[in-house]
Amino acid sequence: MESDRQVRRPRTWVVASALALSLLGCQSKGSVSDALDPAAIQVADQPAAVVAVANASQATQSLGTGPTKVAMLLPLSASGSAGENGRKMLDAAKLAMTDLGNPLLTLTVEDTRGDAAYSQQLAVKAITSGAKVVIGPTELPAAQHVAKLSGSNRPVVLALADNFAGGPGVYAVCLGEADSAAAGAGAIAAKGGKKFVLLVPAGAGADIVEKRVANSLSVYGAALAITIPYTSADGAAKAVADMGSLVDAPDTVIVASGDSNPSPILIALKAKGIPGKSTSVVGTNRWLEHPTSPLFEGAYIATIDQHETGPISERFKASFNYQADVNVAYAYDMVALTAGIASAAGPNGFNRQVFENPNGFRGSTGLFRFRADGSSERSMPFYRIEKGALKLVAKSTSSF
């Protein structure tokens, strides 16, 4: 149902639960579509098999008894929201194992404590442990370190870190700014926009955002007229001034903000009458990490519906006595996806070709797929900010 959604700071962003499209190369033991179709999930009568194998801190837990070894790295004992989210993800993993994974997977869950250095050590240990898949870590430095490691026998890693760009065989699960910017730009291009400008924070991430946006626009015959990096509040004003002198009447200005508040750029754009009748502004999911502002008014944003947890919602609440959120959906989906591949192809069916299936996977928030560079691409709701709220414009930005 279409409704306004208040703009507020999200914890992380949701991906689909109960994935449903078939995978390339999966032929044995039925299809992944059969295994992960929400309507086909038979909730087990017995509780998830959970065996604590460490001390009372539960540094290590084992779930399931299946032949496929999977490692999961979560900040279970971390303080604050990191620990809270880690424990939610553990509950999500338990539900996914009960639904799908217990007879297929042995899932070993390690506590990273929210410590980036320790998480990095555990990640290296996990990828050399014989696990077919590693789910996590949530700590960005650890995910980035794993992405730099080479080795032909390294298992697939489904990283749960926010703002992770990905790497070959190390896939970014959480929605990133490049994904959001690309989907938003694509949604405008699909309606006829042709000339786009990208304003992006200078740095290594700028190239990633630019490439993803350019690729998305090319599908619709549109293009970036120019990309203008900026470095600070003063740099933001200069970037907008440069835009005015370099590009005549763009259809759309895409504003990536990185870790910063987008307000300085928006102030400069507003002084130029943007957004206006002839020029739209596309923001990103990173905007929503900051308090809403009248400056956001009229901008478009493609982002995952932070309130949607799909077909697992009722079962999760019944099992754990609290409402599922996006952290739950991320973790459930990755365990469910892993179980589906194990069901379809067995313990030896895990490879990059399977995870990079161009048809993607369907979940409660729409389609997503993993790219060869480790980034993810998503079809997601498209919103316009009106009176401080996200007003739904389209339920889906695109399909694969």
TrEMBL record:
This is ABC transporter substrate-binding protein. It comes from Mesorhizobium australicum. The lineage of its organism: Bacteria, Pseudomonadati, Pseudomonadota, Alphaproteobacteria, Hyphomicrobiales.
